[in-house]
């Protein structure tokens, strides 16, 4: 099917576009009252993730309401550990918890590299419904967590400031760590391929906890596995977003992917130099900038656009949008990108 707005895909591939495409990480859910209305019909977040019809509905809300150039499927990175045999719970106002965690060899023996068509069919169904309802309006982004970030939750059992249990395992049980990371990697490749077969037009890998590793450890325990995923996925453009991995930018320029996401700590000009001209860059306005006045948002968004230039850029925030941001401020960001980059 011909896509009506394919700016995201064209920008990812480095083709010329009439303006810079824009979307926001974590745009589905969180900020919209319309999302909370849908969510309140169910018992909780996980029920919504597992309900393909409603997941499709909240995936499309930001396209209708915020006028962004892409939809991202409403799901979570933690569906992968669950499908591997480690279920999670989502505690209101606190975040995810894993009742069981991975500490030793016997824990890994109980896990499986799963078949996404059975274990994660609810995500694939949500993608199919979303594609049908979007009817080619904008591309649909699929996603997964990077192996290191998924490993962190599986070992730590919850969010953490330091993830010291997860990092401890890299020092005390490196072979076991590699075994688990490889299992997550293999599962993720199957899962992303299934998302693409179901209709995802681009996929993004979120390495949210990249920034807590040393550069050497990031090479050994994180980038190596992202590299495998990028090599395995060739059907659609791939975006790698490694939050805080400023030290790995030069190496990320060598990944077999189309786009590298930047967080707001990363200098744009320096990132372009380190990563090179063969990648599209995505980002990187500070999510907190959206708490500023409309005038300030316009100013900082225009500055960002000036720094990135008009080619090989996908406008976004430097991390997910925060839950209490006023949707009108998000619209201001989106409209500023659209208008200013058209000139
Ligand atoms: C680390 C991580 C998680 N999940 C995700 C990441 C990587 C991105 C990042 O670094 O922000 C990714 C994610 N989670 C969700 C999406 C949906 C698509 C989107 O809008 O981008 C995506 C892409 C829905 C969600 N995932 C979650 C919510 C909020 C749950 C609710 O509605 O109650 C949503 C809409 C819950 C979640 N899920 C996770 C946490 C830590 C939490 C609790 C705190 C929070 O809200 O971020 C794990």
Can you describe what's shown?
The protein is of the alpha/beta class. Helices cover 49% and strands 11% of the residues. The protein has one domain (7-342): TIM Barrel (Alpha-Beta Barrel). It has helices at 7-12, 33-39, 45-49, 52-66, 79-84, 105-109, 116-119, 121-134, 147-156, 164-172, 174-198, 215-232, 249-252, 268-275, 294-308, 327-342; strands spanning 71-72, 89-91, 95-97, 140-145, 202-207, 238-242, 259-261, 280-285, 313-317. It has a seven-stranded parallel β-sheet with strand order 1-4-5-6-7-8-9. Helix 4 (52-66) crosses helix 8 and helix 15 packs across helix 16. The chain starts with 6 loop residues before the first helix and ends with a helix. The model has no long low-confidence stretch (mean pLDDT 97). Residues 25-30, 39, 45, 72, 74-78, 90, 95-96, 143, 159, 206, 208, 320 line the site of coproporphyrinogen III.
The number of domains is: 1
Mean pLDDT: 97
Spans with pLDDT under 50 lasting ≥5 residues? none
Mind telling me which CATH architecture this is?
A: Alpha-Beta Barrel
Termini gap: 30 Å
Number of helices: 16
According to CATH, what is the class? Alpha Beta
Which class do the helix and strand fractions yield? alpha/beta
Largest sheet: 7 strands, parallel
Q: What is the gyration radius calculated from CA atoms? A: 19 Å
- Give the fraction of residues assigned to helices: 40-55%
Order of helical and strand elements: HHHHEHEEHHHEHHHEHEHEHEHEH
Looking across the biggest beta sheet, what order are the strands in? 1-4-5-6-7-8-9
Query: Hetero groups bound?
Result: coproporphyrinogen III
Q: Beta-strand level of the residues, as a percent range?
A: 5-15%
CATH level 3 topology? TIM Barrel
Number of strands: 9
Principal-axes geometry comes out as globular
């Amino acid at each position: 099917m011909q896509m009506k707005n394919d700016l995201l895909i064209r920008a990812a591939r480095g083709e010329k576009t009439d303006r810079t495409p824009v979307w926001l990480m974590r745009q589905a859910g969180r900020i919209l009252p319309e999302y909370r209305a849908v969510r309140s019909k169910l018992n909780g977040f996980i029920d919504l993730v597992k309900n393909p019809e409603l997941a499709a509905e909240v995936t499309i809300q930001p396209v209708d309401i915020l006028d962004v150039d892409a939809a991202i499927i409403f799901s979570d990175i933690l569906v992968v550990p669950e499908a591997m045999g480690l279920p999670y719970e989502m505690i209101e106002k606190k975040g995810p918890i894993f009742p069981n965690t991975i500490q030793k060899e016997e824990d890994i023996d109980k896990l499986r590299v799963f078949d996404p068509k059975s274990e994660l069919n609810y995500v694939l169904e949500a993608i199919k419904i979303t594609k049908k309802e979007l009817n080619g309006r904008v591309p649909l982004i699929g996603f997964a967590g990077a192996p290191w970030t998924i490993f962190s939750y599986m070992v730590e059992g919850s969010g953490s400031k330091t993830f010291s249990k997860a990092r401890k395992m890299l020092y005390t049980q490196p072979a076991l760590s590699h075994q688990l990371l490889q299992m997550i990697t293999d599962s993720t490749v199957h899962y992303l391929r299934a998302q693409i077969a179901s209709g995802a037009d681009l996929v993004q890998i979120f390495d949210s906890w990249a920034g807590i590793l040393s550069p050497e450890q990031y090479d050994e325990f994180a980038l190596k596995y992202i590299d495998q995923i990028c090599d395995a996925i060739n059907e659609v453009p791939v975006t790698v977003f490694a939050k805080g991995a400023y030290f790995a930018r030069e190496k990320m320029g060598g990944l077999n992917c189309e786009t590298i996401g930047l967080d707001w700590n990363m200098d744009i000009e320096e990132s372009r130099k380190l990563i090179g001209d063969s990648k599209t860059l995505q980002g990187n306005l500070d999510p907190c900038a959206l708490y500023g006045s409309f005038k300030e948002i316009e100013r900082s968004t225009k500055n960002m656009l000036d720094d990135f230039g008009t080619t090989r850029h996908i406008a976004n925030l430097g991390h997910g949008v925060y839950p209490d941001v006023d949707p009108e401020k998000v619209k201001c960001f989106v409209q500023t990108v659209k208008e200013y980059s058209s000139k």
